[in-house]
Amino acid sequence: MADLLNPADPAFARDPYPYYARLRARGPAARVDLANGTHAWLVTGYREARAVLADPRFSNVPPKAAGRPRPDSPARRAQACLARHMLNSDAPDHTRLRRLTAAAFTPRRVDALRPRIARLAAGLAGDLAARLERDGSADLVDAFAFPLPVLVIGEVLGVPEADRADLREWTYRVGSPADALAPGAMDAAWTALHAYFTALIADKRRAPGDDLFSSLVHDAREGGLTDGELLAMAFLLLFAGYETTMNLLASAVLLLLTHPGELSTARRDTGGRRWDAVAEEALRHASPLEGTTWRRTTEEVDLGGGAVIPAGSSVLVVLAAANRDPGRFPEPDAFRPGRYLPGPERAAAHVAFGHGPHFCLGARLARLEAAVALPLLFDALPGLRLAADPGLLPYRPGLLVRGPRELPVTR
Ligand code: HEM
């Protein structure tokens, strides 16, 4: 029997790894009692994580009566509509949505964003430098790691620059615990996002741009996605792409500032291979998505090692734990970008972007953002230093996403 898990505990949020290591030592998957009175199966072994993510007996469709509010208000209807996206679906619906979206998300289109990402990152790094000059210290999450992914998704969706601050605010609100906001603020954000994307689709239909979302809208006219599916897709791209990438950038900066030797090695490299390795190792070591979305078993599944998961169970694949499985990664708790340099010694692929049919559609874009933004940041601010004790930084509670909520820095 594992100890009771309280995902809201700030100490667990900051460092969940000792708990996951204890759990893994008992078997690759374990039934865990959660502090809210429910229970779930947590998969912590690397091999088993990949097996579950590729197994159709683990469904992504949220159960109808999972305590979700009934769509009885405009905000609830908007929320229900935006949640009908491919990450919440199984084959064959998922296969069709994924095929149509992947056709727009080509490597060529993603790579074409490089100069725009560089321009946005350089602008934010310049603003941060000016703020540090003026105020002495600033929060790197607020000034850099948070705005950059939202601005980049703005490019993907072809959203006018003037609207991006609104998107940033609404997305922040719908991802926050309701009790952390003013009454009604979250409902207003759901309704605003729904209205905004409805108008955006109509705009793109009238006047397609050269953005990726325009090609999705255009494909829709030729028997592709329906309007409802487009709406949910816009929301998924915004939501899946921002907090994850924000956590990657913030965690990578934190790891580099606390491992100055690795930072100077990366800074000396002009070919970019070392920065790519930093991003890969940060993804493994500080997995931005701590767990995947919830799965539910459609029948009893024997995962081996004594883990027999009954039908109808809630299952969470803990990517952060699988990526620290000592059976797969020697010295898993050490931050060593060198393990991801090309060559015969290269470490196993991490599962930070998931595995199987739902493997992250934005992986190439996220890697590109990190590879462009990190060197630009340290070029603009070569003397960047932490202005807080790294062991005391606050982390967002919960099992889904992980990264520092604040990263006070100085120069
Ligand atoms: C560091 C950044 C990112 C990480 C760590 C990450 C991680 C993941 C993971 C683990 C999944 C699978 C979840 C599951 O199986 O339950 C996923 C799915 C997805 N991600 Fe990402 N992601 C990142 C950035 C992005 C970006 C930038 C975009 C888009 C612009 C994006 C779009 C998606 C989409 C659309 C899916 C659903 C795919 C499907 O259901 O087939 N992600 N991501």
TrEMBL record:
<dbReference type="GO" id="GO:0020037">
    <property type="term" value="F:heme binding"/>
</dbReference>
<dbReference type="InterPro" id="IPR001128">
    <property type="entry name" value="Cyt_P450"/>
</dbReference>
<keyword id="KW-0479">Metal-binding</keyword>
<dbReference type="GO" id="GO:0005506">
    <property type="term" value="F:iron ion binding"/>
</dbReference>
<dbReference type="Pfam" id="PF00067">
    <property type="entry name" value="p450"/>
</dbReference>
<keyword id="KW-0408">Iron</keyword>
<keyword id="KW-0349">Heme</keyword>
<dbReference type="InterPro" id="IPR017972">
    <property type="entry name" value="Cyt_P450_CS"/>
</dbReference>
<dbReference type="GO" id="GO:0016705">
    <property type="term" value="F:oxidoreductase activity, acting on paired donors, with incorporation or reduction of molecular oxygen"/>
</dbReference>
<dbReference type="InterPro" id="IPR036396">
    <property type="entry name" value="Cyt_P450_sf"/>
</dbReference>
<protein>
    <submittedName>
        <fullName>Cytochrome P450</fullName>
    </submittedName>
</protein>
<keyword id="KW-0503">Monooxygenase</keyword>
<keyword id="KW-0560">Oxidoreductase</keyword>
<dbReference type="InterPro" id="IPR002397">
    <property type="entry name" value="Cyt_P450_B"/>
</dbReference>
<dbReference type="GO" id="GO:0004497">
    <property type="term" value="F:monooxygenase activity"/>
</dbReference>
<comment type="similarity">
    <text>Belongs to the cytochrome P450 family.</text>
</comment>
